From TrEMBL:
GO terms for cellular component: plasma membrane. SMART domains: GGDEF, PAS. This is Diguanylate cyclase (GGDEF)-like protein. GO terms for biological process: cell adhesion involved in single-species biofilm formation; negative regulation of bacterial-type flagellum-dependent cell motility. It comes from Deinococcus soli (ex Cha et al. 2016). GO terms for molecular function: diguanylate cyclase activity. Residues 223-246 are annotated as: Disordered. Residues 320-367 form the PAS domain. Transmembrane segments: none annotated. Residues 621-742 form the GGDEF domain.
């Protein structure tokens, strides 16, 4: 039923998570459709997705993906929720798929997310009016499961892309913070020089030009005047003319050019309190200013205001002290000066309050005395040459400070400044953690696409995950009777614990019962027996892994008493998903391989299996090939129906199966044609066959019989086709002889 206009549609959210809302062609889904078409023996297979307002085909074999519109969505909403088939009757929802509408039979099975949301159907159709859909229902269902596995893998990839974008966003913020810090540091360096206002502006323009990688920079000291070049030529030559009005930042597309006619990007910054401007330019048709550049220029306005204030009061100690006190009160920093004996003569800044200290408490005391209990101050005590600067990061009271020290002249003490950079350091650490997390998820996703045995794939996944779980080892457990036993181990573990794990864990264990119920288990040190803690086990995180009837458990174990973080639990959950996908893929491939070589009616090998086994048997040694043609099948079909005829074929198959010994096989290679591969020469083949077929008559097929022929290798040759043809000829001679007798 179509939902009201404003009603939420969970199918839209599910399709958005799988990134299949657009009408694109998805090669991974197309490949599955082609495989399913071959397996089912039909001309057309399609993935049909539907929401409340739209129905579309993103992948198909035989058809071209297309949009079917809202009408098809309305009709599909009325389709059965279980596998269904139509033959002869019309299904209007799919008329748009077939062009002129000629189709004989179709079958569908729903596509359902792990959360139970049906997002569409897997459709198979044939031009033939009769298709035995009951025999193909399991394959159609398995195909739908494989489609959902591909979509789940796409969802995991989309989530990984979001993590990468978040990492790039954090890196951008860190880069912007670094640029801002460099701007303030460069302008602060100018204030320590004996410069007048004009020289300060020239220096600020030069430093900023280097910071933003400008091709040219200059200073316009009066409105309408010619700017003075300061970068890269520092000889005061005239620079290019500047606009008298307009926006302060222009990219190359705005039409501004250098005197030689080359287009460029221009940016101007007004000097606060003066009729002057700083100008910066880049050359080229594509020159532009990034958002980071614009932020630096905005910061420059603020910095220029303080630079000129400091320069104007350079000769006035009181003014400089006022400005310094302003910074100390409002910025998270500490300023200190020690005398020649190492005692603190000056200690200022709001950072003292963060450390729980007062100015009066520390004056006259040494750094060892003040900070010795919270910091190893050996590095801070290191001798400095006159004018030499030492910079390092230190941690005090949980805060990180970037410290700068310089030796004062004339045998004096040292001057030191410490800036609180805790937020910057934390943002860097967060970016590194996000990067490591994203890289581990990416590596796990790549392992999910690998082929190989379950232990091989699992070991690769655990080797990827182990570095992200410090002081840990990992084990994949499998169910063996009443025990859980280790299948794959990775990481260093205490020998006593390894022996205990090799003995297996009884399923009667309380934690094992929770895992059997599908719940994850987290064990902290208090949850573990004291004996295990003494032997080196301090924590466990266990994830159940179930695929069909197979139960496994992925466990991570700690050698140190560390808590499990949400990120670690998330990574282990992804690793469990990798193991589950490997299990499901193994089961699916086994079923597909079995279906490819098995006759679905009788359960015997099909023609493909017969041809492969015949070649293998010829390579091993003497073999007898028996061909068999069932007599009376057409009569049973005509008089008793095809269902009874199928039962005759199954009865013959059972009889032939009873003939087989080790390394022998029975096959249905056609409608009523069977073949046997028997070891050795044909001495017992035909007598045993005649006796075995008596059971067919006992099943109620008194008029049924069989004609058989045989050929042996190496007696009759070694060529498979010639051997088969010879057995057929002898079988037809036997059939003709039986007709003459009757």
């Amino acid at each position: 039923m179509i939902q009201p206009p404003n009603a939420p549609d969970p199918r839209v959210d599910a399709c958005a998570g799988y990134a299949v809302l657009d009408l694109g062609v998805y090669p991974d889904l197309d490949r599955v459709c082609r495989v399913m078409a071959g397996a089912l023996g039909v001309e057309h297979v399609a993935v049909v997705l539907a929401t409340a307002r739209r129905c579309w085909v993103p992948a198909a074999a035989g058809w071209t993906p297309r949009d079917l519109g809202q009408r098809a969505a309305e009709q599909l909403s009325k389709a059965p929720r279980s596998p269904a088939a139509w033959a002869g009757a019309r299904l209007p929802a799919f008329d748009a798929l077939f062009g002129d509408g000629h189709w004989g039979a179709a079958a569908t099975t729903p596509l359902t997310t792990p959360g139970g949301v049906q997002i569409g159907l897997l459709l198979a159709a044939s031009a033939a009016p009769r298709v035995d859909w009951d025999r193909s229902a399991a394959q159609l269902h398995d195909g739908a499961a494989l489609i959902m596995q591909v979509l789940e893998a796409r969802a995991a990839s989309v989530q990984l892309d979001r993590g990468r974008q978040e990492r790039e966003r954090l890196a951008g913020r860190l880069h912007q913070a670094t640029l801002t810090a460099r701007t303030f540091q460069a302008i602060a360096d100018l204030t320590a020089l004996p410069l007048d206002e004009d020289d300060s502006l020239r220096g600020a323009a030069q430093l900023t030009a280097e910071l933003i990688s400008a091709d040219w920079a200059g200073v316009q000291f009066r409105p309408g005047g010619t700017p003075e070049s300061v970068w890269p030529e520092q000889d005061g030559r005239p620079g290019p003319p500047l606009p008298t009005s307009g926006v302060p930042v222009l990219d190359a597309a705005a039409g501004w050019t250098f005197p030689d006619g080359e287009p460029g990007a221009l940016a101007c910054v007004d000097v606060p309190g003066r009729a002057a401007r700083l100008a910066f330019a880049r050359r080229g048709m594509d020159a532009r200013w990034s958002s980071s550049d614009r932020q630096v220029l905005r910061d420059l306005t603020w910095a220029l205001r303080h630079l000129l204030s400091f320069a104007a009061q350079a000769s006035a100690l009181r003014g400089l002290e006022e400005q310094l006190q302003f910074a100390l009160r409002n910025l998270p920093m500490i300023l200190w000066v020690t005398d020649a004996r190492g005692a603190l003569a000056v200690a200022e800044g709001s950072g003292l309050t963060q450390l729980g200290l007062r100015r009066e408490q520390v004056l006259g005391r040494s750094l060892d005395d003040v900070l010795g209990g919270t910091l190893n101050v050996t590095a801070l005590r290191a001798e400095l040459g006159v004018g030499q600067e030492r910079r390092q990061e230190v941690t005090l009271a949980g805060r990180v400070y970037d410290t700068h020290r310089v030796r004062l002249p004339d045998g004096g003490g040292t001057l030191g400044v410490a800036f609180d950079v805790t937020e910057l350091v934390e943002s860097r650490a967060q970016a590194r953690r996000a990067q490591r997390h994203a890289e581990t998820l990416l590596d796990l996703t790549q392992v999910m696409a690998l082929s190989g045995s379950l232990p091989e794939v699992t070991l690769q996944a655990l080797e990827v995950l182990l570095p992200a779980l410090p002081h840990s080892w990992m084990v994949l457990w499998f169910r063996e009777g009443p025990l859980l036993r280790p299948l794959v181990s990775c990481g260093e573990q205490p020998e006593a614990i390894a022996q205990w794990q090799r003995r297996g864990v009884p399923l009667t264990d309380a934690f094992a019962q929770r895992l059997l119920a599908g719940a994850a288990v987290q064990l902290n040190p208090p949850d573990l027996p004291e004996r295990l803690r003494n032997e080196g086990l301090h924590g466990a995180l266990l994830m159940p892994v179930r695929a069909g009837e197979t139960l496994m458990v992925l466990g991570a174990y700690r050698r140190e008493p560390l808590a499990w973080s949400p990120v670690e639990r998330d990574l282990l959950s992804v690793a469990a998903r990798v193991v589950q996908v490997s299990l499901e893929r193994r089961d699916t491939l086994a079923e597909l391989r079995s279906a490819a070589v098995t006759d679905s009616l009788t359960g015997l090998g099909n023609r493909r299996a017969f041809e492969a086994d015949l070649r293998a048997a010829l390579a091993r040694g003497p073999v007898t090939l028996v061909t068999l043609d069932v007599d009376g099948l057409k009569q049973v079909n005509d008089t008793q129906g095809h269902a009874r005829g199928d039962e005759l074929l199954r009865s013959v198959a059972r009889a032939l199966g009873n003939l087989l010994g080790p390394d022998e096989g029975a096959y249905r290679v056609g409608g009523d044609e069977f073949c046997l591969l028997l070891r050795g020469l044909p001495g017992r083949a035909l007598p045993d066959l005649d006796a075995a077929l008596l059971s067919v008559k006992a099943d109620g097929f008194a008029q049924a019989g069989a004609s058989a022929g045989s050929a042996s290798a190496p007696l009759d040759g070694q060529d498979p086709e010639a051997l088969w043809q010879l057995a057929d000829e002898r079988m037809y001679l036997e059939k003709a002889r039986r007709r003459q007798v009757r």
